[in-house]
Amino acid sequence: xxxxRTLQQGLSDQHKVILIEQHSELYFQPSLLWLMVGRRKxxxxxxxxxxxxxxxxxxxxxxxxxxxxxxxxxxxTDDQTFSFDQLILATGAMATKANTKELASAGYNxxxxxxxxxxxxxxxxxxxxxxxxxxxxLPHKCPPAVYEAAFLLKEWFSKxxxxxxxxxxxxxxxxxxxxxxxxxxxQALSEKLQKQKINLYTEQRFxxxxxxxxxxxxxxxxxxxxxxxxxxxxxxxEVISDSGLADETGWISVDPFTLETCYKDxxxxxxxxxxxxxxxxxxxxxxxxxxxxxxxVADNILKxxxxxxxxxxxxxxxxxxxxTGSTAFALWGNLYKQNPSxxxxxxxxxxxxxxxxxxxxxxxxxS
Length: 367
Fold this sequence. Notes:
single chain; alpha/beta; FAD/NAD(P)-binding domain; globular
């Protein structure tokens, strides 16, 4: 969306910008956490895809089925075919079908509207016991979200008056929280979790769940639960693999600075791309990266059409505001360094206001 708007504003009338979007409604996904604890209603964070028509590009409400690299065409599921001179792939990541049915019968998906609403309903009648948040595999969208969810749930039960009757734990395959950001960030987040008596278990590799016995099986052992909240395994959408665009990781390899793929005039931004960091880990899949990358690609396409070299490069810099309940703290650093040296900015309500502001901007831009 951001790239389409930039291109539309910078191109002459002889060019056409086409945005293919499979969903008729879009949700501001970071606000699903607020939906989970009742701070938002679904209509508060929803925008119709058709509303974007005038402000950005020609919007096609359909799903891309195949990309023909040699013919430079995109075919949709309703059999429309679009030719392209420049293609930006921003398909995001999707939950795999593996274990989805089993997990859905046992708990609630943190990353869907239905899941957030179901969690909200469940916590209203929850009188005590074990709430277990499970990251089933890496990578997944928005790595901080599982930690923010735990903080928000802790605050919710504190206000409800039964905080002492509820135990909240996080089980993740990560070695340390937000491991791409380095040990300083991981230690800071671990300490904040410990301070709020949220149990953290790292290097936990999920195997399966027994919804009848309410037991989660990890390679390291079994964990009982009363309320299960999970993040499913994420993969690239089928159009990526079906079109031969995926690398051995299942995602799309790109130049880390220009976001161009190995195929001329095809770019991949956001969750769907794969960038190997100097640390040996992959670039996290987070909305902030998608936004910054979209601006780099859009500006460079405009330069390319003017027969000029790229003017902007993605430098791996990252900022993130992490909510801890009634307040938040912020991170700032560069993932492209061999040893990421992130600054951890102290908790205050200013960062919480920052999250609100980002939400307002997204809702305005998608109106």
